[in-house]
Amino acid sequence: MNIGGIPQTQEMLDFAAQHGFAAQIETIGADELNEAYDRVVASDVRYRFVIDTATIGA
């Protein structure tokens, strides 16, 4: 499977930035991982989860 290399990936990222495309995310704390997993299993997720790394080990 040919998915492109680094130059093609950079071109795609540049295009997205120029046209205002961005991922929609929901930031969660490390203590919310189990709840986030349950929501994924239940198909109750609208945006990509991003874990706030500042909350790991806190």
What does this protein structure show overall?
Strand 1 (25-28), helix 2 (33-41) and strand 2 (48-51) form a beta-alpha-beta unit. The N and C termini lie far apart (41 Å). It is elongated and about 35 Å long. The mean pLDDT is 93. The protein has helices at 6-18, 33-41, and strands at residues 25-28, 48-51. It has a domain at 21-58. With 58 residues, it is α+β, with helices and mostly antiparallel strands. It has a two-stranded parallel ribbon with strand order 1-2. The chain has two helices and two strands.
Number of helices: 2
Overall average residue pLDDT: 93
Q: Using only CA atoms, what is the Rg? A: 16 Å
Counted beta strands: 2
Helix content: 25-40%
Biggest sheet character = 2 strands, parallel
Poorly predicted tracts of residues: none
β-strand amount: 5-15%
Distance between the termini: 41 Å
**Content-based structural category:** alpha+beta
What best-fitting shape do the alpha-carbon axes yield?
elongated
**Strand order of the main beta sheet, please?**
1-2
List the helices and strands and how they pair.
Elements: H1 6-18, E1 25-28, H2 33-41, E2 48-51
Parallel strand pairs: 1-2
Brief rundown of the structure:
With 58 residues, this protein is an alpha+beta fold. The protein has helices at residues 6-18, 33-41; strands at 25-28, 48-51.
Keywords:
alpha+beta; 2 helices; 2 strands
